[in-house]
Amino acid sequence: MSSFQLDDFVAGWIGGIASVVVGHPLDTVKTRLQVGKGYGSTLNCILMIYRNESVAGFYKGMSFPLASIAVYNSVVFGVFSNTQRFISEHRYGNANHAPALSDLAVASMATGFISVGLGGPVDLVKIRLQMQTQSQLAENITIGHRPVGFSEQPTYRGPVHCLSSILQQEGFSGIYRGANAMLLRDVPGYCVYFIPYIFLCQWSIPDGHTTANAYSVWMAGGIAGAISWGTATPMDVVKSRLQADGVHFKKYKGVADCICQSYQNEGLKVFFRGLTVNAVRGFPSSAAMFLAYELSLRAIRRGHTEPNP
């Protein structure tokens, strides 16, 4: 029997929707802190967004992630689970054999590589939409860089217009701006995402049971999310800056140039900007995602195993 299963893709899609709904407001705060200036603390950033843009400001750029991150998450969970089963099937002769730490690491890294292909454009559009406020654009445009025909009006009318504009102005490579930084973030990042989650779930399984309960899944997912997003923050800062760059002009030539310029202008602390909100956001969004994923997966498989009346 083949180890490949579609169930994980479907459950991952549902988990992705749950994570966006829960985590997007704090994701907006994180992006503003990492890319913008003048926000100061996390609390001050939240208050400034609310005063200037009301509650709707926290949900800028959400429609595109809501549709696309569901698909992205479907790929992430589907690839990870099927890669893990493939390794177990060929290494131990049984797709359901408990994976070793090295097996989980290989499956996690493979997921990181593949996820960037879909997640790069999604993140790019989301960040461009989150950052296009009048005050933010003014911060990043100096007299020497102000382009001809510059307008205070929003650059993008929505996700589709944003994507088409990037393709027209920067070509196909433009939609993968920041992809190298994303690889450096996600390949190790998924290792400290899936591995802690799996071990925490296994540790919390009660005696006489084969699976963790809903609370344990929620807690394990939240802890894994906080750990992975916390450790990924430095490269997430670089990725966000590269992707936000280029709305009117380009400041960075690549990953190394972005790191050097950011360090020279703002010091080492810039790479930890948004660390608190990353860790705080990582807990509820990942907890919701893993819980929705596990409950959906169990419901789907229960439906497959129940006999027809």
Fold and architecture overview:
The chain has about 300 residues and is an all-alpha fold. The protein has one domain (about 5-140, about 155-300): Mitochondrial carrier domain (Mitochondrial carrier fold). The chain is built from 10 helices and no strands. It has helices spanning about 5-35, 40-55, 65-90, 100-130, 135-140, 160-170, 180-205, 215-245, 255-265, 275-305. Helix 1 (about 5-35) crosses helix 3 (about 65-90). The two termini are about 25 Å apart.
How are the secondary structure elements laid out?
Blueprint: H1 7-35, H2 42-53, H3 63-92, H4 101-131, H5 134-139, H6 159-170, H7 179-204, H8 214-244, H9 255-266, H10 275-305
Helix pairs in contact: 1-2, 1-3, 1-10, 3-4, 4-7, 7-8, 8-9, 8-10
What can be said about this structure in brief?
With 309 residues, the protein is an all-alpha fold. The protein has helices at 7-35, 42-53, 63-92, 101-131, 134-139, 159-170, 179-204, 214-244, 255-266, 275-305. Helix 1 (7-35) packs across helix 2 (42-53) and helix 8 crosses helix 9 (255-266).
Q: Describe the global form.
A: globular
* Number of DSSP helical runs: 10
- Name the beta content range: under 5%
Overall number of domains: 1
Helix-strand pattern, N to C?
HHHHHHHHHH
The count of β-strands is 0
- In the predicted model, the low-confidence regions spanning at least 5 consecutive residues are 134-151
- CATH arch. level architecture: Alpha/alpha barrel
Distance between the termini: 26 Å
Using the coordinates shown, work out and report the CATH topology.
Mitochondrial carrier fold
Helix content: over 70%
Q: What is the highest CATH level, the class? A: Mainly Alpha
Largest sheet: none
Mean pLDDT: 84
**What does the radius of gyration come to?**
20 Å
Fourth CATH level, the homologous superfamily: Mitochondrial carrier domain
Structural class: mainly alpha
